[in-house]
Amino acid sequence: MQQVLYLKDASIFQGDSLVLSDINIEINKGEFVYLIGKTGTGKSSFMKTLYGDLPLTKGEGEIVDFNLKALKEKDIPFLRRKLGIVFQDFKLLTDRTINDNLAFVLKATGWKDKNDIKARIDEVLDKVGMKTKGFKFPHELSGGEQQRIAIARALLNNPELILADEPTGNLDPQTSVEVMEVLQDINKNGNTILMATHDYALLLKYPSKTLKCDDNQIYEVVQRKQ
C-alpha cells in the first residue's frame, strides 16, 4: 500500500498549548477517511498542520512525500499543489465567474496554454456535475453548487490527497448527501480523501475508516456492523 500520510508520535500545538498528542496514524492511497470529534477537539488544528498552516514541532510526519517536520515556508506552495483543499465556506472569488475562479488557480500553479486550461476546467466541472455553470458567478449558485465548484477546484491539479474540512457544514441534509455523492465518486476514481465532519448521519450512510479526535488524542474508531 502506498502511504499518502503518516504521523508517528506526533504532537500538535497551537502556540504554546498542546492540542493533540501522540498521534500515530496512516492513510493509504485510495482510502476515504473521516475525521470526527466535537468542536474544539483539534480537528481544524490537525488539518492546518497537514497543509502547512501550523508547524509540526514534535514527532514525525509525512504527507504526499513532504516531511512535515522539515517543511520550510518556501515548500508550502508546492505541498499545497499536491493537496486539494475544500473548506466549509467555499472560499470562491466572488468578483469572477466560476471558469475564471478555476482558471485563476491553474495559472497560479503554472498552466499557460489557454486550450489546456479550458479543457481541464471542463473536465473537473464535468466530474462534479457542474459543466453548464462555468459562466455563472458564485452568488448565482446555491450553497451545494458552490461546494461542488470548490471540490472541482480542489481536483484541478490531480491532487494526491484531498483534505475536506467540514465540506457539508453549511449545507442542509439533502444537499449534504449530494455533495457526499460527489466525494464518493471522486474517491472511486482513485482520489484519496480525508474529510473532517461532525455530521454523523453521513458516517452511517457512507461507512468508512474513521479517526476520532477526543481528549487530546486521535485514534481509529472501529465501526460496528449494522
From TrEMBL:
<keyword id="KW-0067">ATP-binding</keyword>
<dbReference type="GO" id="GO:0022857">
    <property type="term" value="F:transmembrane transporter activity"/>
</dbReference>
<dbReference type="InterPro" id="IPR003593">
    <property type="entry name" value="AAA+_ATPase"/>
</dbReference>
<dbReference type="InterPro" id="IPR017871">
    <property type="entry name" value="ABC_transporter-like_CS"/>
</dbReference>
<dbReference type="Pfam" id="PF00005">
    <property type="entry name" value="ABC_tran"/>
</dbReference>
<dbReference type="GO" id="GO:0016887">
    <property type="term" value="F:ATP hydrolysis activity"/>
</dbReference>
<protein>
    <recommendedName>
        <fullName>Cell division ATP-binding protein FtsE</fullName>
    </recommendedName>
</protein>
<dbReference type="InterPro" id="IPR027417">
    <property type="entry name" value="P-loop_NTPase"/>
</dbReference>
<comment type="function">
    <text>Part of the ABC transporter FtsEX involved in cellular division. Important for assembly or stability of the septal ring.</text>
</comment>
<feature type="domain" description="ABC transporter">
    <location>
        <begin position="5"/>
        <end position="226"/>
    </location>
</feature>
<comment type="similarity">
    <text>Belongs to the ABC transporter superfamily.</text>
</comment>
<dbReference type="GO" id="GO:0005524">
    <property type="term" value="F:ATP binding"/>
</dbReference>
<keyword id="KW-0547">Nucleotide-binding</keyword>
<dbReference type="GO" id="GO:0005886">
    <property type="term" value="C:plasma membrane"/>
</dbReference>
<dbReference type="InterPro" id="IPR003439">
    <property type="entry name" value="ABC_transporter-like_ATP-bd"/>
</dbReference>
<dbReference type="InterPro" id="IPR015854">
    <property type="entry name" value="ABC_transpr_LolD-like"/>
</dbReference>
